[in-house]
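Collaborator request log, item 7. Partner lab (contact: R.S.) asked for a structural prediction of Peptidase C1A papain C-terminal domain-containing protein to inform their binding assays.
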Amino acid sequence: MMRGSTRTRGAVTDIKDQGSCASSWAFAAVAALEGIVKIKTGDLISLSEQELVDCVTGSDGCDGGWSQKAFEFIISNGGIATEVKYPYKNVQGKCRANKIEQDKKASIREYGTVPRKNETMLMAAVAQQPVAVYIDSSSSNFQFYSGDGIYDGPCGVQLDHAVTIVGYGENKGKKYWIAKNSWGKSWGYNGYIYLAKDVHEISGMCGLATHGYYPIM
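Returned to partner:
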């Protein structure tokens, strides 16, 4: 049974692929923004991760970054370009934000932070919109997850990757989060992973409850 899913509300774009660029922070932020834009305006628009990779200060483009810095940039920039206008290149380039017409429907006024290490509060946020979170993806079991059930480890809490929580559910008494990844459709369950929910670890499965951020329109 699936509950609290923004996928069922049509608020999630197709799975994307970050390639060899360590830009999951940008993909997670964009997926969260695409979701709230759809929920608030009715328009599902694929937005530009490349603009974030090229332009966000305080992050390192293809060498990693922070989703909250992406939201700060979108706020100060007055919006973000669409994927069509500013397509993904899989490398960091020169910032072209001032040369690209922004889609004002993809602008935000602020962003919210989920209380740390609190899956109950994370669930309350995800029930309203997608949330960008950080996880530990270093385990080979995680990296080769093939969609075969709910992932319950092994993994640690050395946060090295960002995904977007787009829903949650329960199957035969096992609760899970639905996370949208950015490793293409061939990974996981058509690009998604089901992560164990309400686990004993206070930081959540793979540390997913440690940091959570969501855009506010």
